[in-house]
Design brief:
The chain is α/β, with parallel strands linked by helices and about 300 residues long. The protein is built from 10 helices and 11 strands. It starts with a strand and ends with a helix.
Amino acid sequence: MAAKIIDGKAIAAEMQDEMKVEAESLKREYDLTPGLAVVLVGDNPASRVYVSMKKKACARLGIYSEEHKLSSDTPEHDLLELINKLNVNEKIHGILVQLPLPDHINEDKILNAIDHLKDVDGFHPINVGNLVIGKPSFLPCTPYGIQQLLLKSNIQIEGKHVVVVGRSNIVGKPVALILLQKTQDANATVTVCHSRSGDLSYYTKQADILIAAIGRAEMIKKDMVKDGAVVIDVGVNRVDDPSRERGYKLVGDVDFNEVKEVASAITPVPGGVGPMTITMLMHNTIKAARLRTIKH
């Protein structure tokens, strides 16, 4: 039996419809429009695409958005000065600095400078610490999106063995922590594997839910997956494809055509996890606005 395809686009659209209603009610009840500032340093083509998608999502949901484009040779102190201004700007509830940053800028210093109550990316050490101890304020968008994909697809997490392949600070570690929490939306047993784990398939074949976030094209093959497992593919890799006009295609970390024959459910690439990342960013921005309102 072929796997159920988990449609991230449809789930994201449904969630965004709900968020639009929430943003409208904040406007109506508190005369408050959630505000997001996105900072882009340099001219990375992929980053430009992401920023434009975020801008469109804000417009669709009724979220105020500001875009700050800085040249790639912008000094670090100028970027820090901009962040300080955004920290005290009452129209802005969420601040996102698009990564990667140019080499001369210290990424940690920049992320730490963002007010943790406006850190809608969930990367500030205070928010990471809250996640570790089970008191999250803002969850990182991609891992949070993965949890929502599972829940909205009626896939049980509680009591299941989740195997995460990849240990990055952006996906691997936080998704493991989110699914480990002592809540009814989590309560999984979690194993984290990585490039030094030895026999990777020994671990992946034990997974009820397999999350691939290792950044290697189609690395997870059919013989590495248990029959009936749920497979979440976080990877986005460009591979050459002369048959396409642009000369390449996007594939995940999972060999989709092989693995869909044994999995019970699987996310495609593109159209799986990707749309959820921006959706959870919108969710965090609305949440930040609501928290500010309640606080005042």
